[in-house]
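HOLO CASE FILE
Compound: pyrazine-2-carboxylic acid
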Amino acid sequence: MRALIIVDVQNDFCPGGALPAPEGDRVVPVLNTIIGRFPLVVASRDWHPEGTVHFEKWPAHCVENTYGADYHPDLKTEKIDTHLLKGTGNVDDGYSAFEATNSDLEKLLREKGVKEVYIGGLTTEYCVKSTAADSLKKGFRTFLVTDAIEGVRQNPGDTEKAIDEMAGMGVGMVSSDQI
Ligand code: VGL
Ligand code: ZN
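Model generated. Tokens follow.
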């Protein structure tokens, strides 16, 4: 049994948003193509209060119930089985989808008998990497969909470094056409 985790495909992480991955919207058609191939699809959203220590590190983004926190309008959200909200506290970052506060992702995956987790979305260096690391730690076989992720690219090379780090941890690399 395999599951797709779509991480933070939200307006604020796409071009024109508050904290954009320069090509963040490129993941949307790729995810739309593969979303129907998974018996379980989970999607996370960064969902911050207006005041949070997280905004000492980052420009304000994905404030709960704002347009910036909505899914990208073209994402096929009707195919999402479970919607996760994370970063909802005011004292933490909440990068990983496993830190969602409205639902227990690990428990859900175990109940459904999921053994393999495929991850796509935004951003490669932070929430995607943190979600992949947690997934591995919890014992799921974990794969990155390499053409369904985009980095925020604060510094040149950050995105590539994050991908190398994930490969080093044991995350498998697959492209969408291999799924
Ligand atoms: C993210 C920075 C701050 C992400 C979230 O979704 O990768 N990055 N908050
Ligand atoms: Zn955030």
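CASE NOTES: Residues 124-137 form the longest helix (14 residues). The domain at 2-178 is CATH 3.40.50.850 (Rossmann fold).
CLOSED: yes
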